Fold:
Amino acid sequence: MTDGMGLRGAYDATIGRIKAQEGGGARLGIEALMWISHSERPLSVDEICHALAVEIGSADINPNNIPSIQTVISCCQGLAAVDEGSSIIRLIHFTLGEYLAGRDDLFDRPHSRIAETCLTYLNFQAIKDLSVSPFRDLQGTYLLEYSSLYWGAHMRMDLSDRSRYLALDLLNQYDKHISAELLWELVKKLFPIHLSCMKPFSALHCISYFGITEVAIDVIGTKRWDVNYRDGVGLTPLMWAARYGREEVVKLLLQQKHTQPDITDTLHGRTALSWAAGSGHEGVVRKFLGPLFVDPGPIGRWRGAPEVLSILFGRKYINPDKPDNGGKTPLSWATLNGHDGVMKLLLQRKDVSPDRLDNYGRTPLMWAAKGGCDRAVGLLLEREDVSPNKLDDHGQTLLSWAVQNGRDEREDVSPDKSDNGGQTPLSWAARNGRDEVVKLLLGREDVNPNRPDNDGQTPLSWAVRNGRDEVVKLLLGREDFNPDNPDNDGQTLLSWAVQNGRDEVVKLLLGREDVNPNRPDSDGQTPLSWAAWNGRDGIVELLLEWKDISLNTPDHYGRTPLSWAARSGHDEAVKLLLEREGVIPDRPDNSGKTPLFWAALNGHCEAVKLLLERGDVSPDRPDDSGRTPLSWAARNGRGGVVKLLLEKADVSLDRPDNGGRTPLSWAAGGGRDRVAGLLLGQGGVSPDRPDNNGQTPLLWAVRNGHDRVVKLLEARNSATPSVV
Structure:
């Protein structure tokens, strides 16, 4: 922000004009800026107008106090604006926010004032009277949502005596207050499951969630609470406080006589310590690991009876290594989320196992490697009681997880051990494009670069499939590598490179003498066939430059590369193939369909044109079912293709197939009125020719409810609707 008479000077002058307004304009302008600049989320026009109308401590809102948004904007003297699309009020520029944040003299305890306003609003009798049923009418309660969700956030930042009193008034009736349900709706979104039950989010849960210690003391003093009560997501007040790092509230709850700090939530089986560790709250974790919660040693068999332990030792025992429903301990969660400080605290404990397997067979070290948490990996590898060669349930080792994130951590790790899918660390590194790790592994004599996984995929084939060009170059540079080995589906590296459009890799492979570009896979498809099918025009050109390329090799369906290109409508590939001498453009597949059939059937007009321009393509050749390209185009409503075929003199317009159905019969039965009209406009088409079952085109149209086709057919004098 500029000094002098720059932005700061302009803002100072504007604030001066706001303060100089008369008739309440100054108060309205300053308070509006306070709300806009200090709210927890952007405010709507209705929200800010109602917020400015609330008189703190009043019993209800005075409608006459609600300003119009035009008045609010006017009183802000151009420093606030409304987004028309969203009806959100905002400051005119981010620098204004910076300016207001530096003007401590401008607003009097803004967060405290906002909290008091929100709590006053929630304590209005009209709000208290609202039903919490799903059918409640919230019309006109514009400040209800914001107040319900954020009063605690503002209060935590600046607690006043008045807000403390107003909060206690709300919390004394919280179980039945609508704001409890609104906060509950927000809380539920933190848990990715469907929660049908509605267990109260109690006042103690609420204040533990917000973390306001003074109010928590007040609430606890109002009655005898079940401090271990689980809410609708199965969490106790202590768990909420631990999850959000509310240290003083955690301390307060732990001091309560009946608090059981080691119980688990009902959804995940996690303890309060687990939630704190997973969120990285070191201060909270220290409180759980403090001297009041030490391991009772030889009385350990009584860990399931905390009340007995409290009597015997005057303290409450917490198991710092307690697994949740997925087998993850607090250390696992801290490691998974990269909270090094919490890890150090837990690793100092003798009763925490750093090598414990969870239900997925993974140790904290594996989670650290998987998440790429280098410092966490380092902390764990420093310990002698951590095994780097353990396998998880997928058979993956620490190194397998580490190389997926570009790491190679320790020399005593087996570098060529395969997981349950047969993939080695080199395979994972190649698959994920970890160039430096690949170099390290290739430098070891105990790593086999050709080792296939259970699907026959080698490290190189994974690199090719995923477009890891640098890894491909590294592996192809080795003399002990065979680039033409097929996988379990018979696909070679070239085949995979073609399918995935890896032009540069294709060039590299075609430049080698030990690569056969004509090698078919288990389905009989060659690289050229794959390139034509997938429309890889550049690769088609590269392959066609190879002098011994096989143009007409059929796959197990009898389809050639030209057939696949025509079927998929890849016009450029069709053109490139037709330009090559030796291509057979009219070769039928196992069902008797030629490339023209496939192009016509799928409505690829340009491919049809290219094929019809050839003198060696028969436009009326039937397939094994006796159907011609025109028949298929008519059936599928390919009007453009039908027009092209009707222009050919050697196309039979009324040729029946093996079932006696003509192109018009197929068009009528399918409701293809445009195609039916084209056919009926030609001479030599019989509109009432029956098929082998006696069904005429008109009967097919009537039978299938295609009224527009019926009208077309009835318009022909020779058409008769009589049923055979």
Summary: The chain has a mean pLDDT of 84. Strands lie at 43-44, 80-83, 88-91.
